[in-house]
């Protein structure tokens, strides 16, 4: 089903994961508009959806070819009238692609992201930690490894275990080596030496972050999604506490269940950081609560909505509406944010006011992982029915989507049996 020529505006989304589907669903819920989704290839989460016009384009490694496809799509969508097109990316490398080719794309698309230099100042983790230092925002002790660096000297500043992760998530996608993970937990110097040897041989040349390990399981992970106006003023901060993460290597660290809430300190620190950068649009900050000193330690900025950002919509704040009201204008959405879903802090930043449980897991499986402070909050919400899954969407009537939901649930059982959560 193609886009209706009378549709007032069209979201165009690069990607094909659950975050892509969720954003398309959110636009459909808020405005009854369908989104054009451009993945490398189709898959169960985005196929046969009432909210999506699917246009697989193959590998996105050739940026020039992706830009050409986007320009051709813009000409097609505007053939029946000059309606606004909004361009989104689901992964960091999509955002970098859009930012690098902004001059060509901006002639045809509304781009709700900052300029390239602003994104680079935040998205590269080494830049992020330098900014956190300057602003006095708590974060784990960090060093940056580059090929040829004195590894022993770097490691000498830490006590094992260490956390290892790429400074550039976009560049990391192209790195290929056995045992590669999104985040590595490194137990000793021999393991560190072996890992960096593989990284050096993989062609990855950006910085590799070595970081103090902050103890604690999934339930001490924190996240907050912020929205900044075109003038760079942060007006919203949506805080969440992770109940359980995914632990399969390719999706390690993705939140599988989140309890929403309010945290004035994280809201204020993140707003300060984004306003210092001159951010506009949405960003998400990952963090971890450190029981040793009672502080929330900032880990990184994602220059986009997170993969599991549906926790916001589940709690009553649909981020699609921020995009539309700020970047298209009030004529496309004159309604205000639902007042019962938010509370305004002294700094003038709206925060979520409702506790709600987001999860992509079958409830029976989730109940196995609720033996923690955050887990007990989730158990109460689960029992009271205050729980949402982005894939469970009543307007989706296609029978293949129902089959996909069953297969997806079974796959979660398989993954958690093979890759159980950490306990420390």
Automatic annotation (TrEMBL):
UniProt KW keywords: ATP-binding, Nucleotide-binding
Source domain of life: Bacteria
Sequence ranges assigned to domain ATP-grasp in this UniProt record: 129-328
GO molecular function, one term: ATP binding
InterPro entries membership: ATP-grasp
Protein name: Carbamoyl-phosphate synthase
Organism expressing this protein natively: Glutamicibacter soli
């Amino acid at each position: 089903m193609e886009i209706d020529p009378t549709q007032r505006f069209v979201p165009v989304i690069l990607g094909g994961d659950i975050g892509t589907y969720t954003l398309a669903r959110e636009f459909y819920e808020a405005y009854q508009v369908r989104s054009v989704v451009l993945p490398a290839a189709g898959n169960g989460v985005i196929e046969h959806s009432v909210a999506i016009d699917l246009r697989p384009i193959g590998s996105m490694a050739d940026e020039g070819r992706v830009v050409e496809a986007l320009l051709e799509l813009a000409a097609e969508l505007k053939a029946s009238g000059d309606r606004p097109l909004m361009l989104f990316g689901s992964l960091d490398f999509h955002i970098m692609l859009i930012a690098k080719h902004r001059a060509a794309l901006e002639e045809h698309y509304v781009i709700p992201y900052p300029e390239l230099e602003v994104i680079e100042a935040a998205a590269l983790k080494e830049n992020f930690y330098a900014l956190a230092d300057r602003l006095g925002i708590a974060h784990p002790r960090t060093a940056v490894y580059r090929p040829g660096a004195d590894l022993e000297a770097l490691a000498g500043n830490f006590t094992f275990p260490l956390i290892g992760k790429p400074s550039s998530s976009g560049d990391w996608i192209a790195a290929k080596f056995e045992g590669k993970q999104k985040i590595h937990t490194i137990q000793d110097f021999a393991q560190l030496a072996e890992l960096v040897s593989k990284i050096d041989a993989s062609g990855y040349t950006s910085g590799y972050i070595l970081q103090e390990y902050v103890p604690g399981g999934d339930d001490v992970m924190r996240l907050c999604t912020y929205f900044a106006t075109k003038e760079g003023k942060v007006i919203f901060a949506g805080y969440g506490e992770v109940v359980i993460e995914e632990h399969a290597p390719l999706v390690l660290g993705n939140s599988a269940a989140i309890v929403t809430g309010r945290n004035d300190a994280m809201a204020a620190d993140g707003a300060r950081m984004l306003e210092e950068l001159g951010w506009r649009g949405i960003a998400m900050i990952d963090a971890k609560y450190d029981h040793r000193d009672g502080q929330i330690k900032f880990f990184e900025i994602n220059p986009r909505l997170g993969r599991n950002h549906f926790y916001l919509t589940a709690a009553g704040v649909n981020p699609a509406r921020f995009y539309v009201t700020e970047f298209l204008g009030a004529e496309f959405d004159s309604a205000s944010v639902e007042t019962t879903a938010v509370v305004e802090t002294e700094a003038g930043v709206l925060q979520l006011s409702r506790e709600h449980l987001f999860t992509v897991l079958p409830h029976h499986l989730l109940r196995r992982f609720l033996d923690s402070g955050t887990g007990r909050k989730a158990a109460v919400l689960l029992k009271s029915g205050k729980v949402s899954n982005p894939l469970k969407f009543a307007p989706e009537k296609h029978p293949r989507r129902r089959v996909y939901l069953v297969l997806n649930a079974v796959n979660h059982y398989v993954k958690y049996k093979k890759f159980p959560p950490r306990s420390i």
